[in-house]
Protein backbone atom coordinates (compact mmCIF):
# COMPACT_ATOMS: atom_id res chain seq x y z
CA UNK A 1 0.00 0.00 0.00
CA UNK A 2 1.16 3.49 -0.84
CA UNK A 3 1.25 6.31 1.73
CA UNK A 4 -1.13 8.46 -0.31
CA UNK A 5 -3.75 7.79 -2.97
CA UNK A 6 -4.97 9.98 -5.82
CA UNK A 7 -8.07 8.94 -7.75
CA UNK A 8 -8.03 10.39 -11.27
CA UNK A 9 -10.72 8.17 -12.75
CA UNK A 10 -12.87 10.14 -15.18
CA UNK A 11 -10.23 12.80 -15.71
CA UNK A 12 -8.59 13.33 -19.10
CA UNK A 13 -5.20 14.69 -20.23
CA UNK A 14 -3.46 16.72 -18.85
CA UNK A 15 -5.43 16.68 -15.60
CA UNK A 16 -4.14 13.35 -14.16
CA UNK A 17 -0.55 14.57 -14.61
CA UNK A 18 -1.34 18.00 -13.14
CA UNK A 19 -3.03 16.46 -10.10
CA UNK A 20 -0.16 13.98 -9.66
CA UNK A 21 2.39 16.80 -9.68
CA UNK A 22 0.33 18.96 -7.29
CA UNK A 23 0.04 16.02 -4.89
CA UNK A 24 3.73 15.08 -5.13
CA UNK A 25 4.81 18.62 -4.29
CA UNK A 26 2.86 18.49 -1.05
CA UNK A 27 4.33 15.14 0.01
CA UNK A 28 7.47 14.40 1.98
CA UNK A 29 10.51 12.86 0.29
CA UNK A 30 10.53 9.09 0.49
CA UNK A 31 6.73 8.77 0.65
CA UNK A 32 4.80 6.85 -1.99
CA UNK A 33 1.77 7.89 -4.00
CA UNK A 34 -0.68 5.62 -5.79
CA UNK A 35 -2.36 7.27 -8.77
CA UNK A 36 -5.47 5.55 -10.15
CA UNK A 37 -6.89 6.49 -13.52
CA UNK A 38 -8.69 5.32 -16.64
CA UNK A 39 -7.57 7.72 -19.37
CA UNK A 40 -5.21 5.50 -21.45
CA UNK A 41 -2.60 8.09 -22.62
CA UNK A 42 -2.03 9.30 -19.06
CA UNK A 43 -0.71 5.87 -18.08
CA UNK A 44 2.32 6.56 -20.27
CA UNK A 45 2.38 10.32 -19.77
CA UNK A 46 2.73 10.24 -15.97
CA UNK A 47 5.88 8.04 -15.84
CA UNK A 48 7.37 9.94 -18.83
CA UNK A 49 6.97 13.22 -16.94
CA UNK A 50 7.80 11.99 -13.44
CA UNK A 51 10.96 9.91 -14.08
CA UNK A 52 13.05 12.80 -15.56
CA UNK A 53 12.23 14.77 -12.38
CA UNK A 54 14.09 12.13 -10.41
CA UNK A 55 11.12 10.28 -8.91
CA UNK A 56 10.80 6.51 -9.02
CA UNK A 57 8.02 4.39 -10.45
CA UNK A 58 7.56 1.47 -8.06
CA UNK A 59 4.86 -0.28 -10.05
CA UNK A 60 2.45 0.14 -12.95
CA UNK A 61 -0.47 -2.23 -13.24
CA UNK A 62 -3.64 -2.24 -15.31
CA UNK A 63 -6.86 -4.22 -15.07
CA UNK A 64 -10.10 -3.72 -17.03
CA UNK A 65 -8.97 -0.33 -18.30
CA UNK A 66 -8.09 1.06 -14.86
CA UNK A 67 -4.41 1.66 -14.21
CA UNK A 68 -2.53 2.07 -10.95
CA UNK A 69 0.84 3.79 -10.80
CA UNK A 70 2.84 3.83 -7.58
CA UNK A 71 5.39 6.65 -7.42
CA UNK A 72 8.08 7.22 -4.81
CA UNK A 73 8.94 10.85 -4.23
CA UNK A 74 12.74 11.10 -4.37
CA UNK A 75 13.44 14.83 -4.17
CA UNK B 1 14.91 21.46 -16.62
CA UNK B 2 13.78 23.00 -19.94
CA UNK B 3 12.22 26.42 -20.09
CA UNK B 4 9.12 27.52 -22.01
CA UNK B 5 7.70 30.95 -22.74
CA UNK B 6 4.24 31.56 -24.16
CA UNK B 7 3.17 34.92 -25.56
CA UNK B 8 -0.59 34.92 -24.99
CA UNK B 9 -1.69 37.42 -27.63
CA UNK B 10 -5.16 36.04 -28.32
CA UNK B 11 -8.06 36.57 -25.99
CA UNK B 12 -10.11 33.75 -27.51
CA UNK B 13 -11.30 31.03 -25.14
CA UNK B 14 -10.20 28.12 -27.34
CA UNK B 15 -6.70 29.49 -27.90
CA UNK B 16 -6.31 30.35 -24.22
CA UNK B 17 -7.34 26.81 -23.26
CA UNK B 18 -4.73 25.35 -25.63
CA UNK B 19 -2.08 27.63 -24.19
CA UNK B 20 -2.97 26.63 -20.63
CA UNK B 21 -2.97 22.91 -21.45
CA UNK B 22 0.60 23.35 -22.71
CA UNK B 23 1.60 25.58 -19.78
CA UNK B 24 0.19 23.31 -17.06
CA UNK B 25 1.47 20.19 -18.84
CA UNK B 26 4.99 21.61 -19.04
CA UNK B 27 4.90 22.80 -15.42
CA UNK B 28 3.71 19.35 -14.32
CA UNK B 29 6.76 17.91 -16.09
CA UNK B 30 8.87 20.14 -13.89
CA UNK B 31 9.64 22.68 -16.62
CA UNK B 32 10.01 26.38 -16.00
CA UNK B 33 7.08 28.20 -17.65
CA UNK B 34 6.43 31.91 -18.21
CA UNK B 35 3.30 33.31 -19.87
CA UNK B 36 3.35 36.88 -21.14
CA UNK B 37 -0.15 38.27 -21.67
CA UNK B 38 -0.38 40.92 -24.33
CA UNK B 39 -3.06 42.66 -26.39
CA UNK B 40 -6.34 40.69 -26.36
CA UNK B 41 -4.73 38.09 -24.13
CA UNK B 42 -4.76 40.60 -21.27
CA UNK B 43 -8.51 40.02 -20.95
CA UNK B 44 -7.78 36.49 -19.72
CA UNK B 45 -6.20 37.86 -16.54
CA UNK B 46 -8.67 40.66 -15.85
CA UNK B 47 -10.47 40.15 -12.57
CA UNK B 48 -14.27 40.11 -12.79
CA UNK B 49 -14.71 41.99 -9.55
CA UNK B 50 -11.69 44.22 -9.08
CA UNK B 51 -11.84 47.87 -10.03
CA UNK B 52 -9.29 50.39 -11.27
CA UNK B 53 -7.94 52.67 -8.55
CA UNK B 54 -7.13 55.64 -10.75
CA UNK B 55 -9.73 57.56 -12.75
CA UNK B 56 -10.05 56.51 -16.41
CA UNK B 57 -10.54 58.66 -19.49
CA UNK B 58 -13.45 58.07 -21.87
CA UNK B 59 -11.60 55.73 -24.29
CA UNK B 60 -10.18 53.60 -21.47
CA UNK B 61 -13.68 53.31 -20.02
CA UNK B 62 -14.98 52.15 -23.42
CA UNK B 63 -12.22 49.52 -23.67
CA UNK B 64 -13.07 48.34 -20.17
CA UNK B 65 -16.74 47.93 -21.01
CA UNK B 66 -16.43 46.38 -24.47
CA UNK B 67 -13.67 43.82 -23.90
CA UNK B 68 -14.42 40.48 -22.17
CA UNK B 69 -13.73 40.83 -18.47
CA UNK B 70 -11.91 37.72 -17.33
CA UNK B 71 -11.50 34.05 -18.22
CA UNK B 72 -15.20 33.26 -17.86
CA UNK B 73 -16.24 35.93 -20.35
CA UNK B 74 -14.02 35.03 -23.32
CA UNK B 75 -15.48 34.10 -26.71
CA UNK B 76 -14.61 31.25 -29.06
CA UNK B 77 -12.53 32.11 -32.15
CA UNK B 78 -14.83 29.92 -34.28
CA UNK B 79 -18.49 28.93 -33.95
CA UNK B 80 -19.15 31.41 -31.15
CA UNK B 81 -22.59 32.16 -32.66
CA UNK B 82 -23.38 35.06 -30.31
CA UNK B 83 -22.44 32.96 -27.33
CA UNK B 84 -24.48 29.88 -28.23
CA UNK B 85 -21.41 28.00 -29.48
CA UNK B 86 -19.52 28.98 -26.35
CA UNK B 87 -22.34 27.75 -24.11
CA UNK B 88 -22.37 24.44 -25.99
CA UNK B 89 -18.61 24.17 -25.66
CA UNK B 90 -18.74 24.81 -21.91
CA UNK B 91 -21.49 22.22 -21.49
CA UNK B 92 -19.51 19.70 -23.51
CA UNK B 93 -16.35 20.38 -21.52
CA UNK B 94 -18.23 19.83 -18.26
CA UNK B 95 -19.76 16.60 -19.60
CA UNK B 96 -16.30 15.35 -20.58
CA UNK B 97 -14.84 16.37 -17.23
CA UNK B 98 -12.57 19.04 -18.72
CA UNK B 99 -12.01 21.82 -16.23
CA UNK B 100 -12.68 25.51 -16.89
CA UNK B 101 -10.03 27.97 -18.01
CA UNK B 102 -10.21 29.61 -14.57
CA UNK B 103 -9.29 26.31 -12.94
CA UNK B 104 -6.42 25.85 -15.43
CA UNK B 105 -5.14 29.27 -14.37
CA UNK B 106 -5.23 28.22 -10.70
CA UNK B 107 -3.45 24.94 -11.46
CA UNK B 108 -0.81 26.76 -13.50
CA UNK B 109 -0.12 29.09 -10.58
CA UNK B 110 0.03 26.24 -8.09
CA UNK B 111 2.61 24.50 -10.30
CA UNK B 112 4.76 27.65 -10.41
CA UNK B 113 3.92 29.15 -13.82
CA UNK B 114 4.98 32.80 -13.97
CA UNK B 115 2.35 35.29 -15.19
CA UNK B 116 3.55 38.55 -16.71
CA UNK B 117 1.47 41.26 -18.36
CA UNK B 118 2.90 43.44 -21.12
CA UNK B 119 2.87 47.13 -20.25
CA UNK B 120 2.23 48.55 -23.74
CA UNK B 121 -1.29 47.19 -24.35
CA UNK B 122 -2.15 48.09 -20.75
CA UNK B 123 -1.46 51.71 -21.67
CA UNK B 124 -3.37 51.50 -24.95
CA UNK B 125 -6.42 49.90 -23.36
CA UNK B 126 -6.16 51.95 -20.20
CA UNK B 127 -6.01 48.94 -17.88
CA UNK B 128 -4.38 49.23 -14.46
CA UNK B 129 -2.50 46.51 -12.62
CA UNK B 130 -5.05 46.56 -9.80
CA UNK B 131 -7.64 45.18 -12.25
CA UNK B 132 -5.83 41.86 -12.72
CA UNK B 133 -6.29 38.54 -10.93
CA UNK B 134 -3.96 37.74 -8.00
CA UNK B 135 -2.09 35.16 -10.09
CA UNK B 136 -0.35 37.92 -12.07
CA UNK B 137 3.27 38.27 -10.90
CA UNK B 138 4.07 41.57 -12.55
CA UNK B 139 4.24 43.86 -15.51
CA UNK B 140 6.95 43.29 -18.12
CA UNK B 141 8.67 45.10 -20.96
CA UNK B 142 9.66 43.71 -24.33
CA UNK B 143 13.31 43.48 -23.29
CA UNK B 144 12.36 41.38 -20.26
CA UNK B 145 10.34 39.07 -22.50
CA UNK B 146 13.24 38.80 -24.96
CA UNK B 147 15.67 37.90 -22.20
CA UNK B 148 13.26 35.22 -20.95
CA UNK B 149 12.74 33.89 -24.49
CA UNK B 150 16.46 33.85 -25.30
CA UNK B 151 17.10 31.51 -22.41
CA UNK B 152 14.21 29.20 -23.25
CA UNK B 153 14.16 26.09 -25.41
CA UNK B 154 10.55 26.58 -26.49
CA UNK B 155 8.86 29.89 -27.29
CA UNK B 156 5.25 29.99 -28.42
CA UNK B 157 3.10 32.83 -29.71
CA UNK B 158 -0.59 32.03 -29.35
- Give the tally of structural domains of chain A: 1
The global form of chain B is globular
The overall strand count of chain B is: 5
Poorly predicted segments of chain B = none
The portion of residues assigned to helices of chain B is 25-40%
Structural class by SSE content of chain B: alpha/beta
Approximate strand percentage of chain B: 15-25%
Shape of chain A: globular
Oligomer: heterodimer
Q: Helix count of chain A?
A: 2
What is the total domain count of chain B?
Answer: 1
Total helical elements of chain B = 6
Overall mean confidence score, pLDDT of chain A: 95
Order of helices and strands of chain B: EHEHHHEHEHE
In the CATH hierarchy, the architecture of chain B is 3-Layer(aba) Sandwich
| CATH fold label of chain B | Hypothetical Protein Ychn, Chain: A
**Range of helix content of chain A:** 25-40%
Give the helices and strands of chain A as they follow along the chain: EHEHEE
Radius of gyration of chain B: 16 Å
Give the distance, in angstroms, between the N- and C-terminal Cα atoms of chain A.
Answer: 20 Å
Describe the protein's architecture and organization.
The complex is a heterodimer of chains A (75) and B (158). Chain A has a single domain (4-72), classed as TusA-like domain (Translation Initiation Factor IF3). The mean pLDDT of chain A is 95. In chain A, 31% of the residues lie in helices and 33% in strands. Chain A has a four-stranded mixed β-sheet, covered by helices on one side. Chain A has helices at 15-26, 40-50; strands at 4-7, 32-37, 56-63, 66-72. Chain A is an alpha+beta fold. Chain B has 158 residues and is α/β, with parallel strands linked by helices. Chain B has a single domain (6-133), classed as DsrEFH-like (Hypothetical Protein Ychn, Chain: A). Chain B is built from six helices and five strands; from the N terminus they run E-H-E-H-H-H-E-H-E-H-E. In chain B, helix 5 links the parallel strand 3 and strand 4. In chain B, helix 1 runs parallel beside helix 4 (101-110). Chain B is globular. Chain B starts with a strand and ends with a strand. The relative contact order of chain B is 0.26. The mean pLDDT of chain B is 95. Chain A binds chain B through residues 10-15, 17-18, 20-22, 25, 49, 52-53, and chain B through 1, 21, 24-25, 27-30, 96-99, 107, 110-111.
